[in-house]
Each structure stands twice: as C-alpha cells, then as structure tokens.
Amino acid sequence: MRRLALLLLCVPLAEAADRSADFIVLRDDYVRQSRAFTDDTRREALEYVASLEARAGEMTNAEFLIGIARTTALADNGHDAWHPQDDAWLPDRRAPVRFFWFPDALVIARAAPGQQDLVGARVNAIDGHAPETLFGRLRPLAGGPDNYRRWNLNLFLERAELLHALGLAEAPDRLTLSLVLPDGTELTREIAMIPPAEAPPGAGPAGLLASAPADPIYLQDPDRLFRVVELPDIAALYVQFRAHYGTEDQPIEAFMTAASAKIAEVKPEHMILDLRFDGGGDISKTIAFFNGLAAAVPGRIYVIVSQLTFSAGIVAAALVEHSAPERVQIVGEPVGDRLRFWSEGRPVCLPESKYCVRVTDGLWDLVKGCAQEPGCYGDTWGGRVMDLDPDLAAPLLAESWLAGTDPAMTAIESHLWGCKSCGPEPGDGG
C-alpha cells in the first residue's frame, strides 16, 4: 500500500494534465482574438496565461477557475467574461445566503431555512475582511466599471472554497459573518456551505430583492421580464424592461405590441421607463419600440437606470434620451458600463474544463460614435448622447430597500409636481 501511495505521488493530477488544450484555446482563440484588449493589456494577458500554464500541474480546480476569471478581467470590458457549461467544475457547496451589494452596504438579501433571521442584515465583515477589502481583492476577477463588477463578483463571495483559494476565507467549507441586523443588533454567525439545490432562490436582481419587507412597484412580479402599469395619479404609464429577449411564455414581441396598444389606449401624458434591472439582450428586437416612445408620449419621459443597467439596457436608455433630450430625465444612479465598450462576438469554450469565455468584436461609442474605427458596430443603431448621468440622482440604497421605498419614484413624483413646463398638471387627464 505504501509503495502504491508513493507511485501515485509521482503521477500528475488528471485535471492538471488535461489542461494543455485549454491554455492553447485561451491564449490563441480568446486573448489574441478579443478586440477589447489594448496592446498593453493583451501583452499582460498573454504573460499571465503563460504563468498559469507554467504551474498547471500544481493548480487546484479553484485556482484554475480564478485564473480564467483574471484572464477575462484583464480586458477591462464588462462583456468580456466567462461562464461554466453544465459539466464544468464549480464548488459543490455554496453559502446558505445571497448577498446584494447596494451603493451604501453589502446586505443579505435572501437566506435558506434556518438562516431567515439574517435577511436584511448588513455585512460588516466576512472572515474578518470588511466589504471594501473583499472588493479590492476580488476586483481583478471581473472587468468593467466598479459598480457593475460588484454584481459579477457575487459568485466568488458566496462560495467559501473560492474565497479560501484567494486567501480570504479561513476554511473552504464555512464562513464567519459579522453582521448588523435591521433592528440594530450586532452578531457573529458561522455559516456552513450547503448543496446548491438547498440555497435560497432568486435569479436576477429582481428575484433577489423581492424579499423586501414592502412591495414597491419596481419589485412587483419579479418573474416577469416586462411589465406595463397605469399610474393615473400622476398621468403616467410605467413600463419596465428587465431584458431584451423573450421566453416561450413571455415573448418580447407580444409584450411590445401590447405595450404600444396600452399607450394608444391610455394616452398618458408622461411615461416612466424602468430599466434599472435591464441586463441587456438583443437591441435589434426592441430598437423600434424605444425609438418610437418619444412620439407616443407628449410630456416627460423618465428613464430609471442603475448599476445593473447593462449592454442593450444602456443602449435603450441612450435611444430614448437621443430622441427627445429636452423631455427626457435620467433618474437613479450611473449605469453599469462605460458608454464606450465592446460587445457582440461569440463564446469560445475550453475543451477540457468546459469554461466558456466571450470574444468581443463589436465596438460601441454612444458619445462620439466609432464609424472610422475597425469593428464599429454601435453606429448601426444610433442613440448618440452626451452622457447618461442621472438628471435626478436617486440611488437605490440598502436603507430604501429595507424600508420598502423607491427613491426613483419619489424623485419622479417630486419633479413632476414641481415641473411647470411639463404640460398639464399630473392627474388633470390632459
């Protein structure tokens, strides 16, 4: 038996020995092909991939996954990211809580049975590390602006095995949380990782935040991708997009037809377009709808955006702003990407590990345009704007979520009632 053990020590781990093909694809088909890299960042990424390959025989699964994430993050482009195929390795256990990173706090948004008392708690530390320290260490694992990185980094934050591999957790199977409950009580709770099937639900931000104590309009029907609601008290129609794609039971074309019919029927003076959870999709499916909104509504159009407004969601906001800049008010907080970014492209999947990375090749510049540059794609759709900075600053804070209030709607109502050049007073019916 001892002889067999010694022999096994001399044999490279199968998972490590099989990674050579992955490094070839990562280097040649991703780093050398994605247009989001600059000359400098491409050189840095190639050097980093070479360093990973040099120590492939000693890397754990967690370290390899972290290496893939760091590689895509070097492009510093929100669309250059990775995702696992069904048979790719991920930690087989995860936290029994779900985190949400508001601008003012890291909060537990959902919890599994047995941990329900933690919902709404602010996180002061995880294994002794304050949230900003954690973000600083996790930041190199995602690209794009910091407000959107926080959302993308939750996969690491909720898996002790990955935090342990990064030196941020003392053990791979548990985390110690320092918390402040909504009533102000401070406590420390050790949480053991659990099978993913037992973890609390909540796909997408609307699903995560639907556990709020109250039910403001932006969180209602969290499983719906699109919604339209009459707001007669302010002579407005509320239209919400959470994506630019449909499903079999929620076809986007049918929704846009119904929404257009509702606009024609109600003839609202004003419109509230809520894109704060709009993570993107295919702008070609929705461009006609967004280009036509200004002509359909004579008064103010309020476009609500947030750190989670991304990709086609950002383009949609720009299209509406471009169509009627004198009547459009951007509400909320900065969007989740710069206004110059790379998207489109295709996924490239690593043959052994089954992780896929996105090669981006379509350039957008919503401020200056990009017609004279290779790879220009965004000019096809228009929507040039000076910026998408909020005209009415109304960030969704942890405090607001816990109170069940909506700062964006409060700001809109205040602006409408105080606006003397918006047309008829809200509620006059035109």
| Portion in helices | 25-40%
Which regions are unreliable across 5 or more consecutive residues at pLDDT < 50? 1-17, 423-430
Q: Which strand order spans the largest sheet, edge to edge or round the barrel?
A: 7-8-9-10-11-16
Tell me how many strands there are: 16
Distance between the termini: 88 Å
**Structural class assignment:** alpha/beta
Round the Cα radius of gyration to an integer and report it. Answer: 24 Å
> How many domains would you count in the coordinates?
3
Q: What is the CATH superfamily label of the largest domain?
A: 2-enoyl-CoA Hydratase, Chain A, domain 1
What's the CATH class label of the largest domain?
Answer: Alpha Beta
Largest sheet data: 6 strands, mixed
Tally of contiguous helical segments: 15
Based on the coordinates given, report the CATH architecture of the largest domain: Alpha-Beta Complex
Descriptive account of the structure:
This protein is an alpha/beta fold and 430 residues long. It folds into three domains: 12-84; 97-201, PDZ domain (Pdz3 Domain, Roll), CATH 2.30.42.10; 206-339 and 385-418, Alpha-Beta Complex (2-enoyl-CoA Hydratase, Chain A, domain 1), CATH 3.90.226. 32% of the residues lie in helices and 19% in strands. It contains 15 helices and 16 strands. The chain has helices at residues 2-9, 14-17, 20-31, 39-54, 61-73, 131-138, 146-152, 154-157, 160-165, 204-209, 252-266, 287-296, 312-323, 398-403, 407-418, and strands spanning 82-84, 97-102, 105-111, 122-126, 174-180, 186-192, 226-231, 236-241, 270-274, 301-305, 328-332, 340-343, 346-349, 355-359, 362-365, 392-393. A six-stranded mixed sheet has the order 7-8-9-10-11-16, sandwiched between helices. The protein has a three-stranded antiparallel sheet with strand order 1-14-13, covered by helices on one side. It is globular, with a radius of gyration of 24 Å. The N and C termini lie far apart (88 Å). Mean pLDDT is 92; it is low at 1-17 and 423-430.
